[in-house]
């Protein structure tokens, strides 16, 4: 392979530290990666990432130094089987070669290929669900430890010799300071969320949240599952414009028709226009595992009727029952909901999905079940035209439209409202609204329930539950305690 034009051109046979370059792998704008063999034979082949110094301007050098420090800080802070491992760092000392002298070299695990290599055919990638799950594992660990990757895309997800994957290229990774971190104004146009460029550029960069990684995860998952981008256009710029129009409500999200039905809601939630409503990586990991576990037993009828991650929960439960597993539906969901309560069996899967839709404190299946009990006594046919409220959660159709799955958001449904639409929407509502009452004193889950009956503006203005809602909240508290295992 000709390395002319690479960020760092290193000849075959070049020696640095105890390593000998045996061939090129890939190059980006700021660094180049080469395969290398250990000259003493005491270590397996590795990937050496060269970051230049002598061939860049002073401004570029500052930027490159920042990216190098980000990558080194992350490697020093995090170790995980889904993050590519750093073996050592080297500094090139070669005064006779000014293009390489002073370059920083990261010695890392050697991968077989990247996900970008698998996507070159433009067709779905075999074993895509497992790859998505392993990406979620890496991101969930990073986010839990207070890091945003910042540059999730197929070329930065590496496949190892055993078929497992690793997240890589942490030059844009940032530590979370409070609620967010900061990134320089760079990134892959196809995988950067639309809100990135609306954030003001400060001397620290653009503010970035973990939700940016979730958007990029959704785009990558769509590519793996269908071989196509979620926004159809011929160039990255045109696709970004389409994504921006979608984020402002000027166009709907139209995922490729080949998207497996069970994954459609999962990807749509990753691509929510509202960053606050995107599920966390840990929640997406649980949902992905359920979906992957039911691929072989799901039927077209079941997918058509449910078509959400809740369907996966229900199918998994049915499969366990058919295999002589855990007994009744109530028993199978006993980890989250008390088995001997009056919660109807047919709604338990939907309630568990709604109550575990995000990691927001206070949200739980027991809380969702208690709210449905107080709202309607689990009556899916409830109709209150005077109050314009319908169904098991007493949704007003014009409000429910904002909490439907992303691909259907903005659709005002005509009553009767199904439980399959109404119950997951309660979870989406709580994921969006609970953070907005975070500073209000009181039980976080019950504050969310009160907001559901009024609004988060009311809860913030009253600094708690208004007197007129106290009876409602007391009932939710009572049933939540009864439904908690």
From TrEMBL:
One Gene Ontology molecular-function label: protein serine/threonine kinase activity
Domain Protein kinase: start-end pairs: 19-290
InterPro entries noted in UniProt: Kinase-like_dom_sf, Lysozyme-like_dom_sf, Prot_kinase_dom, STE20/SPS1-PAK
Record has Kinase as a keyword: yes
A GO term from the CC aspect: cytoplasm
Alphabetized SUPFAM superfamilies for the sequence: Lysozyme-like, Protein kinase-like (PK-like)
DNA damage among keywords: no
Catalytic reactions of this protein: L-seryl-[protein] + ATP = O-phospho-L-seryl-[protein] + ADP + H(+); L-threonyl-[protein] + ATP = O-phospho-L-threonyl-[protein] + ADP + H(+)
Pfam families: Pkinase
Keywords (A to Z) from UniProt: ATP-binding, Kinase, Nucleotide-binding, Serine/threonine-protein kinase, Transferase
Domain of life: Bacteria
Gene3D superfamilies: 1.10.530.10, Phosphorylase Kinase, domain 1, Transferase(Phosphotransferase) domain 1
PANTHER family listed in its UniProt record: FI20177P1, STERILE20-LIKE KINASE, ISOFORM B-RELATED
Family: Belongs to the protein kinase superfamily. STE Ser/Thr protein kinase family. STE20 subfamily.
Full protein name: Protein kinase domain-containing protein
Native species: Streptosporangium minutum
């Amino acid at each position: 392979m000709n390395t002319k034009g690479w960020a760092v051109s290193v000849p075959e046979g070049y020696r640095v530290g105890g390593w000998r370059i045996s061939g090129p792998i890939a190059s980006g704008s700021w660094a180049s990666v080469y395969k290398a063999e250990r000259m003493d034979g005491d270590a397996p082949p590795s990937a050496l990432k060269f970051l230049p110094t002598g061939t860049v301007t002073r401004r570029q050098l500052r930027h490159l130094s920042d990216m190098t420090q980000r990558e080194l800080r992350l490697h020093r802070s995090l170790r995980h089987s889904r993050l590519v491992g750093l073996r050592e760092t080297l500094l090139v000392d070669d005064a006779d070669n000014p293009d390489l002298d002073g370059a920083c070299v990261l010695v890392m695990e050697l991968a077989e290929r990247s996900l970008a290599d698998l996507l070159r055919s433009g067709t779905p990638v075999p074993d895509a669900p497992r790859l998505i799950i392993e990406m979620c594992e890496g991101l969930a660990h990073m986010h839990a430890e207070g890091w945003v990757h910042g540059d999730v895309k197929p070329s930065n997800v590496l496949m190892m010799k055993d078929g497992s994957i690793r997240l890589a290229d942490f030059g844009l990774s940032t530590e979370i300071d409070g609620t967010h971190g900061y990134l320089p104004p760079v990134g892959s146009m196809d995988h950067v969320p639309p809100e990135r460029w609306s954030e003001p550029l400060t001397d620290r960069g653009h503010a970035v949240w973990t939700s940016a990684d979730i958007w990029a995860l959704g785009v990558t998952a769509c590519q793996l599952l269908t071989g196509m981008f979620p926004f159809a256009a011929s160039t990255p710029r045109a696709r970004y414009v389409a994504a921006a129009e979608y984020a402002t409500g000027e166009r709907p999200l139209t995922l490729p028709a080949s998207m497996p039905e069970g994954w459609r809601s999962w990807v749509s939630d990753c691509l929510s226009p509202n960053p606050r409503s995107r599920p966390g990586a840990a929640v997406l990991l649980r949902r992905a595992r359920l979906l992957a576990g039911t691929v072989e037993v799901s039927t077209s009828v079941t997918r058509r009727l449910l078509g959400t991650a809740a369907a996966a929960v229900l199918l998994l439960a049915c499969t366990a029952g058919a295999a002589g597993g855990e007994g009744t539906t109530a028993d199978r969901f006993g980890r989250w909901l008390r088995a001997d309560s009056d919660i109807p069996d047919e709604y338990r899967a939907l309630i568990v999905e709604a109550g575990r839709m995000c990691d927001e404190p206070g949200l739980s299946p027991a809380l969702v079940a208690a709210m449905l009990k107080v709202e309607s006594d689990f009556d899916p046919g409830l109709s209150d035209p005077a109050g314009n409220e319908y169904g098991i959660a007493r949704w007003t159709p014009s409000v429910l439209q904002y909490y439907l799955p992303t691909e259907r958001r903005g659709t005002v449904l005509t009553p009767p409202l199904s439980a399959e639409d109404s119950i997951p929407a309660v979870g989406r509502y709580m994921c969006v609204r609970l953070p907005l009452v975070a500073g209000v004193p009181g039980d976080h889950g019950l504050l969310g329930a009160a907001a559901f009956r009024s609004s988060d503006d009311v809860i913030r203005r009253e600094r708690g539950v208004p007197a007129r809602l106290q009876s409602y909240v007391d009932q939710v508290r009572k049933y939540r305690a009864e439904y908690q295992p």
